[in-house]
């Protein structure tokens, strides 16, 4: 599931607190702080819609300063590549 998160407070403390909490969630397999809105983009791995609902309502929504969550499930993976230099690349 692709997840976009807007924080209620876009200050350093709120962002660091969000990052700390999300880094402890096993369902979150990827998380990026991005420029502009939304504040964060994440990839969440769950078994089914009920599992995602549990993650959303019992974990993500409970993080202080989370204002808005938008999510879209992936229907089909078309391409995934890592060229070996993605760690330091913008994108």
Written account of the structure:
The structure is a single chain. This protein is globular. The chain has a four-stranded antiparallel sheet with strand order 2-3-1-4, covered by helices on one side. The protein has 91 residues and is of the alpha+beta class. The protein is built from two helices and four strands, in the order βαββαβ. Strand 2 and strand 3 form a beta hairpin. It has helices at 12-23, 49-60, and strands at 2-7, 28-33, 40-44, 66-72. It has one domain (2-75): Lrp/AsnC effector binding domain/regulation of amino acid metabolism (RAM) domain (Alpha-Beta Plaits), CATH 3.30.70. It comes from Cutibacterium granulosum DSM 20700.
